[in-house]
Amino acid sequence: MIDKNSPLPLYYQLEEHIKQTIESEELMPGDSLPSERELSESYQISRMTVRQAITNLVNKGYLFREKGKGTFVSNQKFEQNLQGLTSFTEDMKARKLVPGNKLLHFEIFPADQDIKERLDLGEEELIYKIKRLRLANEEPIALETSYLPVKLIPGLTPEILEESLYTYIEDELHLNIGHATQTVEAALVNDEDIKHLKIKKGVPVLLIQRETFLENGTPLELVRSSYRADKYKFKIDIERK
Ligand code: GLP
């Protein structure tokens, strides 16, 4: 596995080898890694080289160290491409995970001034306020609050929201979702996140806010989601022009 004649640095070869054992699930999240001494003996390489490989894998999130206990395999994060206006259901299915929803709140009420302006609504218009816990393989991933105009999406029910909202909008209502503006920022968990996402106080979440528009430019939704930062990372491919 480690080829001393290869032009590839030894630490890099070990790093790739450990990565493969994690990706092939030979080593599972929570498993401990053999000690530096054991690794250096079994691969016949220096402890410095082993340390370099482990440090790189810690920095990349594959491993984590616990003082006095050793080095362990981290929970792997879901990687989400930021390009493309996809739904949660599509994102999970693309990863062969089973999407799930827990509807926490469903309400129809007259929008307040700020939401009315952002959704371009008239005086008396009603909005849905929806709060859903989004799950992947039954594990809580994100807590999502959405505001949508009732006039655009008539007949929305709690039952429909157990499944994909975008599927309902596109396949049942035949509306064309066009584009969105999305921001991603770090935020501290609030009490609701702690309760539903099963995370501890003081831990950061990824706060994602999306404003989505139909193809004809009509505002469709305002969404605020807290994603578990220990489970999720965002990826973007960038090109130098
Ligand atoms: C993502 C987006 C939301 C969108 C939702 C629809 O979570 N951040 O803005 O409302 O997907 O998901 P689904 O169609 O799975 O209900």
UniProtKB/TrEMBL annotation:
HTH gntR-type domain boundaries: 8-76
UniProt GO BP: negative regulation of DNA-templated transcription
Transmembrane intervals: none
Coiled coil regions, renumbered to chain: none
GO molecular function, one term: DNA-binding transcription factor activity
Pfam families: GntR (PF00392), UTRA (PF07702)
Source superkingdom: Bacteria
PROSITE patterns: HTH_GNTR (PS50949)
Keywords, alphabetical: DNA-binding, Repressor, Transcription, Transcription regulation
InterPro entries: Bact_HTH_transcr_reg, Chorismate_lyase_/UTRA_dom_sf, Tscrpt_reg_HTH_GntR, UTRA, WH-like_DNA-bd_sf, WH_DNA-bd_sf
CDD domains: WHTH_GntR
PANTHER family assigned to the protein according to its UniProt record, in alphabetical order: MANNOSYL-D-GLYCERATE TRANSPORT/METABOLISM SYSTEM REPRESSOR MNGR-RELATED, MANNOSYL-D-GLYCERATE TRANSPORT_METABOLISM SYSTEM REPRESSOR MNGR-RELATED
Protein name per UniProt: Phosphonate metabolism transcriptional regulator PhnF
Organism for this UniProt entry: Metabacillus litoralis
Lineage: Bacteria, Bacillati, Bacillota, Bacilli, Bacillales
